[in-house]
Amino acid sequence: MYASALRASLVLLFVSTCLSASAQAQAQAPEPQISGRVVRADNGLPIEGATIELEQSGAFQHNAQLPLALTDSRGEFRFVQPVKDGTYFIQVSAEGFVSETYSRDGTLEGKFQRVDASTHLREIDFRLKREAVIRGVVTELDQKPVAGISVTAVHRVKSEDGSERLLPDGGGKTDANGQFVLTKLPADTYFICVNGPTGFNASPDDGGWYRETWFGNANSADKATAVTLSEGQERNDIRIAVQREQRYRVTVLSSGPEGQTKPDRYQVHIDGRSHSASGEKDGSWVIPGIPPGHYRMVSIAWSGDMQYLGEGETQFDVADQDVTVHVQVGGLGEIHGVVKPDEKTASLPAGMMLGITSSEAAQGADVDAAGRFSFGRVLPGEYQFKFVKNPTDLVIRNVRCRGADVTKDSPLRVGDTEKITDCEVTVGAKLP
Among 281, 316, 331, which residue terminates a domain? Predict the structure, then answer.
């Protein structure tokens, strides 16, 4: 009887000690700054072994070790080590699933997460969709496999102005047998491009360049054969035949803007094309690997403290030899004006912000109590007006500058060092 009671006392003491130690350990364990869960989108089951990375926005990440965490058997993850203060993208990847970046509200701006010592981001939940996969082979016209060439899955997206553009969604290189595999693809309709599109991820080999070629053996996406994939579907029969082409060097010489601070450097690019550029001792830039065609060159001047000084452009052709292009850079302009309510709107709300946008630049300006706005340091170009802080009950009815309406088809053209002072933006209530 005494022995049984003693054993029971020892068991209770042991359990009490363990519970006390566990509670103490939990009390001492640091609260995670970021935590959440990763599950499958189709059935809600947890995904074990998913990788969650924190990529710091605007930071130089080359060879840097990113903070990361792995999900456990319940699909849960925790960042228990202190995270350096900064703004981060929270990204997740898992074998067999489409990678995803967290957004607090589904917008691009919502992907930026500010983290400091006081931050506790809980329930960062991801629902990952199964990947679609595309496999195939790239050969020359005689069926000889082409190794080490870029292959990209491209889909069409609509811009705010209603125009369409091609957006690369996944890419890779062919192996020694000319075979490629494109993974992590969301369900969509794709066009498969070799050595493109428009120079994206393209590079020469020892024999020179291969021509940009699309599935269906077409020379553009408009003529290419589309590949439509549902979630989790695989397509394994893509064959593309490519052939060699001659490409050329474009040398760019920039000058200006006149009568202003001399730029410390110029930035050059061919509009709508991916390419590299190397600076020469004489101040010129050399762009290699440009195929024959008609192009628009843009050059932007910068000061030493990274301020825009001006921009210029010119059009040129590449035919059958290297080309030298001269670009005269213009200075910055200004846009001034006033926002007025229409006849059915009593007054302007406080806190409005107006924006101007072009293919090369965007800028915002506050509207004061009298409706006045001012845009300084405006790059030469064609501009549209829009709300940046959009009042929930107002829309822009009309914009007039220099006595003419500013529309999508007739944007405001700002020239070299031009100062426009008579813009009038009329706003009114949204129609029911």
Answer: 331
Residue 17 lies in a domain: no
| Overall pTM > 0.90 | no
Per the listing, tokens 């109590």 go with 369
Instruction: From 297, 292, 298, select the one nearest 318 (Cα to Cα).
Output: 292
Domain with 142 in it? 132-245
Distance CA 386, CA 358 (A): 11
Asked whether residue 237 falls in the same domain as residue 147, the answer is yes
The Cα–Cα gap between 185 and 134 comes to 8
Distance, CA of 162 to CA of 176 (rounded, Å): 42
Report if residue 21 sits inside a domain: no
Is residue 23, in this structure, part of any structural domain at all?
no
For strands 179-185 and 132-140, give the pairing.
Answer: antiparallel
CB neighbour class for 353 (10 Å; exposed up to 12, middle 13-18, buried from 19):
middle
Give the total number of structural domains in the chain. 4
Q: Which of 128, 143, 173 is the last residue of a domain?
A: 128
- Asked, for residue 377, whether it belongs to a domain, the answer is yes
Beta strand 333-341 pairing with 372-378: antiparallel
* DSSP letter for each residue of 95-157: TTB--EE--SSSSSGGG-EEE-TT--EEEEEEEEPBPEEEEEEEEETTS-B--S-EEEEEEEE
Q: Please state, in angstroms and rounded to a whole number, the distance separating the CA atoms of residues 16 and 11.
A: 8
Q: How would you write the pLDDT of the chain (432 residues) with one tens digit per residue?
A: 444 444 444 444 444 544 454 445 444 555 777 899 999 999 999 999 999 999 887 654 545 567 889 999 999 999 887 788 888 899 999 999 999 999 888 777 788 888 877 777 888 899 999 999 999 999 999 999 999 999 999 998 877 666 778 899 889 999 999 999 999 999 999 999 999 999 999 999 999 999 999 999 999 999 999 999 999 999 999 999 999 999 999 999 999 888 777 899 999 999 999 999 999 999 999 999 999 999 999 999 998 888 888 888 899 999 999 999 999 988 888 999 999 999 888 788 888 899 999 877 789 999 998 999 999 888 888 999 998 876 667 889 999 999 999 998 999 999 888 899 999 999 988 876
Q: What CATH number is attached to the domain comprising 381?
A: 2.60.40.10
